[in-house]
Design goal:
With 107 residues, this protein is an alpha+beta fold. It has one domain (2-106). The chain has 4 helices and 4 strands, in the order E-E-E-H-H-E-H-H. The strands form 2 sheets. It has a two-stranded antiparallel sheet. The chain has a two-stranded antiparallel sheet with strand order 2-3.
Length: 107
């Protein structure tokens, strides 16, 4: 089981979502959910949909101040995060992405 702390950022939803709110500040949970919705090149396969829905289920049952993921779901999420494309270049987003790239959640 991997545990991801749900840190809040100063990134507003309108920066990364069409019709997003200028008032809503995004958390790591939000950034993960947005990454799940980023369509991979060629679209979603049935396997992609199943895997992403399992991760969404874990997000929906947020533990205290963090997200608990089974190791296999975390591995899928790690690949999704690594291949994600974002409409902004932001230091807090870079830190979120770095934590996955550098394996902070595997320690």
């Amino acid at each position: 089981m991997k545990y991801i702390e749900n840190i809040f950022t100063s990134i507003t939803e309108d920066k990364v979502r069409y019709n997003g709110s200028r008032e809503k500040l995004l958390s790591y949970r939000d950034l993960i959910e947005i990454s799940l919705d980023i369509v991979p090149q060629g679209g979603f396969t049935p396997k992609d949909i199943r895997e992403r829905n399992r991760i969404q289920d874990a997000l929906d049952s947020l533990l205290d101040k963090g997200i608990g993921l089974e190791d296999s779901d975390f591995d899928v999420l790690e690949k999704i995060i690594e291949s994600s494309r974002w409409p902004i270049r932001d230091k807090e987003l870079a830190e979120f992405l770095r934590k996955f790239r550098d394996g902070d959640y595997k320690k």
